[in-house]
Every structure is written in structure tokens, then in C-alpha cells.
């Protein structure tokens, strides 16, 4: 799993020195987290087959694996998540350019259908208002505000705030990074400025579906928002208050922040949004590789869900 130094040093992955270095994107929790979760399910299924009854059915193993994977309240990134690259990074060939645009359109329409479909499902009757309101226009500003709070809490070492703002696994990783800091130093973080307010923050992906297919009463909603900003991180000596030489780091960043929350499909009551992490954008080769892996895993899981005939 590709991780930036936010997992080990700072949520800002900032460069040494006070000079500003522009970059195109950064990854905190990479898209490979979804692969991590699928691999975790595979390991759990193998473990259940070894430690359980001598001849358990594959459906039992699959259910136990899914239960173990979702036990801590986490959900993997939806495999269909698509974050388009800038036009300057589109494939050069006409064929690949059109293929990429087609995949992007399919992903956009597919996400919209999950939202519209669940709005229809939440209507008590055809003359009633939907009980599920995605509030799509508020997602970008919500992600921007929450992610800033997460970065500030991470810099301050505020463990309780991290647990409140983040999904359990993301909070656990950030808290672990906080615990590894030099106790003689303290970290100061600030967002210097946000860039291109007419363009950012921007909603890049929005889906709601049953992440755990064995629990159809619980839906998971995920949104990906692009945020462009300049961030500064400084370390200070606690005893003297002086800035640690060479610790001031400034960086221009475009980050893709993932928000996630669970929703009860019977009552349509939603839990508060949590910051799931950040991901990278989706170039064509990465999309095709993820698509092939997802299809392979789905084929394997079909076998796991099929009871063994005796």
C-alpha cells in the first residue's frame, strides 16, 4: 500500500526547507487500500477454512470473512471510484483518449445512478418526498472544512479529535504516527491559502451502495473531493519554543479527500461524515489494473459463496 509521510511524520508530506515546491497530487491512503481490504477478506476466508470445522461450506467462510473485515466499522474504497486526471495527462493516442473518456463517463453515470436510485427507494410513496437527501452541493465545503480540522488535530496530537473526525482505521494510523514523534518537539500546522476558488473544492465522485453485501440494511456513502492549497508545517522545541532548524516545510498540494458514512436503509438515518483518507487520481493504466483485479476477486468470491456439495 502506497502511503505518504502523513502516516509516519505529517499529514502534509512537506519538503525540507521553507521554499515552496509545487506538485500535482499527493496520496495519504492510496487506492490500494481497497485491494488491502479485499486481500484481508481472502486471508480471513483461508483462516476460517483452516481453523474451523474440517468441512465448512464456502458460504460460511465467506460470511465469517466479511464479518471480520467490517467488524471495526470500516469499509473499503468502492472499486468503481474514479478520479479523472487533468486533461494535460490524458492518454496521447486517440483510441486511449476516447477509452479513458468513456470509462470516466461510465463511472460518473454509475455514481449518479446509485444516488438517484436510493432517493427513489427512500420515498414512502410516489407522492412523498425522499427521506434520503444527499445534499450534494454541501459535500465539497464539508470535506474542505473537515480535512483542515483533521490536519490541525494531527499536528496538535489531538487523539480524541482524530477519533471523532476520521474512520477507525484512518484514525488508528494517524494516532500511531503521532505516538512516534519526538517528545521534545511540538508540531505547528497551518493552511497558508486555498487556490483557484472557482475550481476547488470540487466533488469528483459520489456513490452510495451496500459495501457489505451480507448486510443489505446498511448502506455506505462515499464522496471524493479535490482540494488545492498551500500548507506549512513547523516543528518547535518544547523547552525553548525555538523552531527546529530546517523543519519549516511548505508545499502546494492538490489532494483528493474521501468522506464516508454509513446509513440505515430501513430508517434512512445517516451517521456523521468521517474522513476516510485521501487517494490518488485514476490514470488509464491504473484503472485497467484495478478493474482486472476487482473482476478476479469477484470471481473468487462467487466460488466462496457457493456451498460445497457433499
From TrEMBL:
Gene Ontology CC terms: mitochondrion; ribonucleoprotein complex; ribosome
Gene3D superfamilies: 3.10.450.240
Keyword tags: Mitochondrion, Ribonucleoprotein, Ribosomal protein, Transit peptide
Subcellular location(s) of the protein: Mitochondrion
Transmembrane feature ranges: none
Positions of the Tim44-like domain: 123-280
Top-level taxonomic group: Eukaryota
InterPro entries associated with the record: mtLSU_mL45, NTF2-like_dom_sf, Tim44-like_dom
Family per record: Belongs to the mitochondrion-specific ribosomal protein mL45 family.
Protein name listed in UniProt: Large ribosomal subunit protein mL45
